[in-house]
């Protein structure tokens, strides 16, 4: 079976690596949009769905390949769902993962452990081309709690402060295979692969 190539509407190396690991057995390979010199599109949507579609459309338009895009983030109940769609720029435009994480911990100072509930959300979109009127949209959700300090070296983004109750550790303390089997992105991508086959 030949491997199908799609453009991934992201240049984030952590995300590219994670998605290709998840796709290993599906004969699908994602190529980061940076390989086609695709500029990041402005995320002007008000939902994860809108932003994922904006990103997929932009990547397909400039690469000429079918596109996969995801928009994901962390929602914290004590903050009315923030950072949500602003997770990647919570501490400001161009903020690092660490700066975003530090801001979230600061915003949760004094919040009791049982009220630090939250979840990772991932919307995964597939578009055959930039004008695809019926994109495939899949959603994955991963429930957990927000720790008071980072723990673990694996993963990226908010993984070091996302506590996974079933494994009694942070997402950043899980090995990649375990994380991929339960994560929001893993869930959404498996649904997408199923839809594509």
TrEMBL record:
It catalyses: dITP + H2O = dIMP + diphosphate + H(+); XTP + H2O = XMP + diphosphate + H(+); ITP + H2O = IMP + diphosphate + H(+). Coiled coil: none annotated. Mg(2+) binds at residues 42, 71. GO terms for biological process: nucleotide metabolic process; purine nucleoside triphosphate catabolic process. The active site is at 71 (proton acceptor). Binds 1 Mg(2+) ion per subunit. GO terms for cellular component: cytosol. One of its GO terms (molecular function) is nucleotide binding. Gene3D superfamilies: 3.90.950.10. Keywords: Hydrolase, Magnesium, Metal-binding, Nucleotide metabolism, Nucleotide-binding. It is an enzyme of class 3 (hydrolase). Its EC number is 3.6.1.66. Pfam families: Ham1p_like. Its cofactor is Mg(2+). Substrate binds at residues 10-15, 72, 156-159, 179, 184-185. InterPro entries: dITP/XTP_pyrophosphatase, ITPase-like_fam, RdgB/HAM1. PANTHER family: INOSINE TRIPHOSPHATE PYROPHOSPHATASE (PTHR11067:SF9), INOSINE TRIPHOSPHATE PYROPHOSPHATASE/HAM1 PROTEIN (PTHR11067). Homodimer. HAMAP family: Non_canon_purine_NTPase. Belongs to the HAM1 NTPase family. NCBIfam families: RdgB/HAM1 family non-canonical purine NTP pyrophosphatase (TIGR00042). Pyrophosphatase that catalyzes the hydrolysis of nucleoside triphosphates to their monophosphate derivatives, with a high preference for the non-canonical purine nucleotides XTP (xanthosine triphosphate), dITP (deoxyinosine triphosphate) and ITP. Seems to function as a house-cleaning enzyme that removes non-canonical purine nucleotides from the nucleotide pool, thus preventing their incorporation into DNA/RNA and avoiding chromosomal lesions. This is dITP/XTP pyrophosphatase. It comes from Solemya velum gill symbiont.
